[in-house]
Amino acid sequence: MIKKEEVYKIGLFNKPHGIHGELQFTFTDDIFDRVDCDYLVCLLDGIFVPFFIEEYRFRSDSTALVKLEGVDTAERARAFTNVEVYFPVKYAEEVGDGELSWNFFVGFRMEDTRHGLLGEVAEVDTATVNTLFVVEKDGEELLVPAQEEFIVGIDQRRKLITVELPEGLLNLEDLDAEDTDCPV
User: Fold this and answer.
1) pLDDT in tens, 93-146
2) CA-CA distance, 101 to 35, in Å (whole number)?
3) Which residue numbers delimit the RimM N-terminal domain (predicted)?
């Protein structure tokens, strides 16, 4: 059985394409094209299930058409509509430095050199120009810029990212509290 810590999310199957079982795939990481791994993992009914890739072709820099082994009709492909797609961590770790996507680090713990443990990376927010790690600790969310210049070290074995964040970045709530005490 595949466990959540053995995979990381790389995209979503959107809808069938054509009548031969092809699926439209929107991805955030093209790792499936850069390493030698012939399967993707889909989250079906809460279970991670591997599917071998027969073929794929890119439509843009973030979409591809994928044909999975055993999915040969549009009806069968419809079962994959809006299904999350994951990639095995063990193959992603073989990629050279600088080629991993930020999504690979979901599930890693993050610590700052001055402030200690910040929490666990729950997701990566790419909705704005600046990519952010969403770090959760004790039910609170902390947004940390995903920038190489802040990363001091990455320990893949321990799933730990060490960062050195600029002074004041983590004290935003303290600054807001001081502003409310100022007379107008």
Assistant:
1) 766 555 667 888 888 999 999 888 999 998 888 778 888 999 998 888 999 998
2) 13
3) 10-88
